[in-house]
């Protein structure tokens, strides 16, 4: 008995400039040589339909995620994320506090928080406070 094999592949672009490949491989036996063209066409149409179904599911999920993305990015843009104090800011705090003879605990009391948890903004405020003590 003759056997036919069909492979149908479609590559679809997805988020972030990537792509996804969908492939269906089907094999079937045909009763005789005369029915090969008809069976090949039927098998090909079936493979193509299966890939189309998979692609439509991925596109539907992409549309849902894209619909959520603007809302999430709007919320993120309204609330700026606090940034951690830089090493340069911490070095400056340590250097000024050393000249003033302050301990780490004294500096943390001025900061109102542990130095390891300072935001960049708060570290800047602490530096200004230490500089003002240094000038006095």
Task: Explain this structure.
The chain is α+β, with helices and mostly antiparallel strands and 136 residues long. It folds into two domains: 3-78; 87-135, no CATH class. It is 60% helix and 18% strand. It is built from four helices and two strands; from the N terminus they run E-E-H-H-H-H. The chain has helices at 36-78, 87-100, 104-111, 120-135, and strands at residues 3-14, 18-29. The chain has a two-stranded antiparallel sheet. Strand 1 and strand 2 (18-29) form a beta hairpin. 6% of the residues are buried. The model has no long low-confidence stretch (mean pLDDT 83).
Terminal residue distance: 100 Å
Rg from Cα: 33 Å
Helical stretch tally: 4
How would you sum up the global shape?
A: rod-shaped
Helix percent band: 55-70%
Overall structural class, as computed from helix and strand content, comes to: alpha+beta
Domains counted in the coordinates: how many?
2
Spatial sequence of strands, sheet with the most strands = 1-2
Largest sheet: 2 strands, antiparallel
Mean pLDDT, nearest integer?
A: 83
Count all strands and give the number: 2
Estimate what percentage of residues fall within beta strands: 15-25%
Low-confidence stretches: none
Order of helices and strands: EEHHHH
């Amino acid at each position: 008995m003759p056997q036919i094999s069909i492979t149908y592949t479609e590559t679809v672009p997805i988020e972030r400039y990537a792509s996804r490949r969908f492939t269906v491989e089907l094999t079937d036996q045909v009763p005789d040589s005369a029915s090969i063209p008809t069976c090949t066409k039927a098998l090909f149409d079936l493979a193509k339909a299966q890939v189309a179904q998979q692609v439509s599911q991925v596109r539907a999920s992409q549309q849902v995620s894209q619909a959520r993305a603007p809302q999430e990015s709007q919320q993120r843009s309204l609330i700026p994320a606090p940034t951690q104090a830089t090493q340069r800011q911490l070095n400056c705090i340590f250097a000024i506090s050393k000249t003033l003879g302050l301990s780490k605990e004294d500096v943390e009391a001025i900061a109102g928080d542990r130095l390891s948890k300072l935001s960049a903004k708060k570290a800047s405020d602490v530096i200004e406070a230490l500089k003002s003590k240094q000038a006095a």
